[in-house]
Amino acid sequence: MNTSAITTSVFDLFKVGPGPSSSHTIGPMKAAFDFRGRIGDLSEETLAKANRIDMLLFGSLSATGKGHGTDRAIVAGLLGWQPETTDPDQLLALLKDPDQQYPVTVNGHTYPVGPSDIYFERRRYDSPYANTMVLRLAGGDEVLLEEEYYSIGGGFVIRKGEPETPQASIEPPYPYQTMKELKAHLSQHNLSLDELIMANEIALTGRSAKEINQRIDQILDFMHRAVRRGLRHKGTLPGSIKLRRKAPLLYQQAKGMSHSSDSFLIFLNAYCLAASEENAAGGIVVTAPTSGASGVIPGLTYLAKHHFHYDKATLRKGMMAAAAVGFLVKHNASISGAEMGCMGEIGSASAMGAAFLTHAAGKSIDAVESAAEIGIEHHLGMTCDPIGGYVQIPCIERNAMGAVKAYNAFLLATSGAPSMQKISLDSVIKVMKATGRDMSTKYKETSEAGLALSATEC
Predict the structure, then answer these.
(1) Distance CA 269, CA 246 (A)
(2) Residue 130, CB half-sphere, CA atoms under 13 Å: how many?
(3) What is the per-residue pLDDT for 82?
(4) CA atoms of 410 and 70, how far apart (whole Å)
(5) Domain map of the chain by residue range?
(6) Does residue 180 contact residue 345 with C-beta atoms inside 8 Å?
(7) Which of 162, 50, 68, 157 lies closest to 120, judged by CA?
(8) Rg of the chain (C-alpha set)
(9) Separation between Cα atoms, residue 226 and residue 401, nearest integer Å
(10) 318-345 residue pLDDT tens
(11) What is the pLDDT at residue 165?
(12) According to its UniProt record, which reaction does this protein catalyse (predicted)?
């Protein structure tokens, strides 16, 4: 088998869970849930010795974990909660009382956890990833179980000692790791992009095409519910910034400008802000590819459904194209703000959104590649510098800007011959990776520079 081929599922990329951050909320919750399961595998003798669980956060998880709700997410995972079924109101209620303890019961043994068991470590830690957490089950001074986890963006988690991409037990029928290889399969086998992604998905997941289509419809429904909730909800977002929601106001403004050429953009902005504001409030969203970028594709797909009147089949095809681009970025660079800055989140989402629009419009694979390349190229070097560690400023407006750039990338890619585009998608992803590597950690989701230093003015 081609062990370096992409074997990520569409539904690993598009995951449902609570905001505000896939790397700081969904990922830590999954890691803590995994640790809970490993506690359950211990012997009765070992379980009897234990009396506490220590949770240590390093890097970006430590720097901005409070604003992202990482502490609540870890406790939720230890309690047995999972992202897609978590009640966001119950999640937000966790740890409000600093003296409250939460009973983690495993195989009849209970270990109380609370804020005093969570350590936001500021010291340097030798780790291959920016988002690192260490979970320990201890009895007195004795560590009975210790696991180290890395949250690598988009809710993906690696446990120390495991490969970043576990080898799939089944080889996809069309293995690829670059856009060049993917396009070669399309040409050789006379396939459309969505047909190839569907064939690989069937092989990797064992689901039927009907089941996959139904799940994509569900994912789109989750996205559009977030948009609709955000268009209704007014008031102030949680946190010290006291940022007021804008989406409902923009939406009303757009409806009153139906004869203006600007109304189209205002509607798109409103839809993207709506989903992103729901994410910032801790609501249920879809990683696309991350929670911090969960307004771009929901806004574009909502626009495509309600303004372009695309049917379900067309929306699904576009989602497959978006997934293909997301796979390539994740496999060859990163979708993590802590690794790539905001180009890894909004830049990836914009490229995926551009691919969605281009493929859904029935354009060629060359046009799809050009649109995605343009989307990434014009986010290169974008910093991730959230004020106060909250996914609010500049994150919410960046979702709207990322969607507008995606739409313009679609227009640019389809306004002439795609062969006129000089830079390939594979090339720009390589540049993205190099840029992320060279970028100062102060600008990668640590709130130590850039706009984050404007907090005193808010």
Answers:
(1) 10
(2) 26
(3) 94
(4) 36
(5) 22-159, 179-457
(6) no
(7) 68
(8) 22
(9) 18
(10) 999 999 999 999 999 999 999 999 999 9
(11) 62
(12) L-serine = pyruvate + NH4(+)
Q: Which residues of 351-379 are buried (b: 16+ CB within 10 A; e: fewer)?
A: bbbbbbbbbbbebbbebbbbbbbbbbbbb
As a whole number of angstroms, the distance between CA 453 and CA 450 comes to 6
Residue 278's SS3 state is helix
**Angle (deg, nearest 10), helices 312-332 and 209-232:** 90
Cis amide linkage into residue 394, ω under 30° from 0: yes
What residue type is 431 in one-letter code?
V
Kindly state the tokens that stand for 432: 């993205």
Residue 273 pLDDT: 98
CA–CA dist 122, 260 (Å, integer): 52
Across 236-262, b (16+ Cβ under 10 Å) vs e yields: ebbbebebebbbbebbebbeeeeeeee
Q: CATH assignment of 22-159, given 3.30.160.40, 3.40.50.620, 3.30.499.10, 3.30.1330.90?
A: 3.30.1330.90
pLDDT at 311: 98
The tokens describing 159, both together, are 């446990």
- Please say whether the dihedral angle defined by the alpha carbons of residues 300, 326, 370 and 1, taken in this order, is positive or negative: negative
Residues 139 and 162: their CA atoms lie apart, in Å, by 26
- Identity (one letter) of the amino acid at 79? L
Residue 76 has pLDDT above 90, yes or no: yes
Spatial CB neighbours of 352, under 8 Å, sequence gap ≥ 6: 288, 289, 296, 297, 322, 323, 325, 326, 372, 375, 406
Work out the burial of residue 135: count CB atoms within 10 Å of its CB; fewer than 13 is exposed, 13-18 middle, 19 or more buried: buried
Q: Which residue has the tokens 């990322």?
A: 402
